[in-house]
Amino acid sequence: MSTPPPAPSDDATLRGRRVVLVVAVLASFVAFLDGSIVTVALPAIARELGTGTGGGATADDGAGLALQQWVVDAYLLTLGSLMLVAGSLSDTFGRVRVLRAGLIGFAVTSVLAALAPDPGLLIAARALQGVTAALLVPSSLALITSTFSGPAQGKAIGSWTAWTGVAFLIGPLTGGALVDTLGWRWVFAVVVVPVVLTLVLMTRLPGDAHRGRDGAPPRVDVVGAVLAAVGLAGPVFALIEGQRVGFGTWFVVTPLVVGLAALAAFVWWERRSPAPMMPLTLFRTRTFTVGNLATVGIYAALSLGTLTIPLVVQELAGLTATLAGLVTLPTTIVSLLFSTLFGTLAATHGPRPFMTVGPLITASGFLWMLLVADPIDVWWQVVPGVVLFGFGLSVTVAPLTSTVLSQIPAGQSGIASAVNNAISRVAGLVAVAFLGVIAGGALTVGGFHRVVIVVAVLLGVSALVSFVGLRDRTRAS
To answer: What pLDDT score was predicted for residue 456?
Structure first.
């Protein structure tokens, strides 16, 4: 009589979960790092490639400025427009498989960007980087939600939130050091290191079954994928270019109209498709719908606020770029210290109090900055507000992410994560597009005060949405 194999020990299960969490953090870290590390290299890129002939331009030349914008925007455009498609692929073909493909693609496209001999190829490589980066975030979060449950899931998402936030801290510091020593091309090449590390760790994960949702054979909703990509790409392109050339030109209006029409067609198609890419039944889940409504205000506010603070402390207070980075450092440190804690607490006690109080704390941090006046005392008028802002962010973000995914079936967690990420990115782009209008055309002290008030109002509305929309003790399980 044969002896049955022993069941996996608790220690082995725990180690396996730790590997899953580390892989998920590193995979998302790569995408977030790229978004923050490249910005400090833009002046050097413009100086070398800005003329399109290999050098001679300054960052202030028209060609150099356009290059800087599109080095950032090409990545954002493809990343934002393909997020839903990537989430659907994650659910259809498996998180590990899609994550691995995204990491390999990201490494290859990063090398292409590092070796680009002219502006056109650099921008094309950045667009391809965005395509591969879109595969990373939804798959990594779906990997967590399909591995952890209950309070452990809240704690894991809190850790994911905290450690991926570190990318925004070390990105500018690492990028600046690389630009000053080895050159701007290494800003792209260095991303290969965490990619290789993640791929090595992934060899310890079990593979995914090639499956469709609910056990059905895998099917790709091609029509839905095309409509979703066009529907997101059009408005995102319009928001990006509208900031540069104005929102009244045909060059901006046309993709906006086409994109909105594609989004309407996407909803129509998804209601009728036998295998929809994004099942609209997701929005029947109260926590998913309320969480995404709160996401709109929270991420619009965060994008507007985090863009404006460094500009103010440099342009109005006269701080160097390095000191400006130190001013915003407390946000990342506080988030790293407390995000895991509040993710765990929200999973145990329900997200409603955290998603109500957290945005209000964040709003109070921005309202503190109404103290800003000429001459600006950054360390009294700004830094305490930044600390409050960071603490409120810690209270809010991990519970928000857990709430959005808490009652979604594991087989749909990829597309659910992608919906939330797409909403947060588009909300941020819309807010940033209206920065000039809100500030009154110039970033003066009065203009900054108006931005701060708008940010606080957005956060207050999100807190109200959470308080009214969420039920008490809604558990992330």
So the answer is: 95
